[in-house]
User: Which sequence fits this backbone?
């Protein structure tokens, strides 16, 4: 449908010595005007699952 997905990850230090993981996404072109609401819901669930798994793995490795 001609949709481009620009997914970005940032890792930032926090003042308390921890790390903040920030991800963002930009859907552009094609049928985004029609599908963006649906895709946002699907992506948000997937990103939540990914973030939890990433957190667990990082904590496992540093423990």
Assistant:
């Amino acid at each position: 449908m001609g949709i481009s997905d620009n997914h970005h990850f940032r890792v930032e230090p926090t003042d308390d010595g921890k790390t903040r993981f920030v991800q963002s996404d930009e859907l552009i072109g094609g049928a985004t005007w029609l599908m963006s609401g649906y895709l946002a819901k699907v992506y948000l669930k997937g990103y939540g699952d990914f973030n939890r798994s990433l957190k667990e793995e990082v904590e496992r490795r540093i423990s």
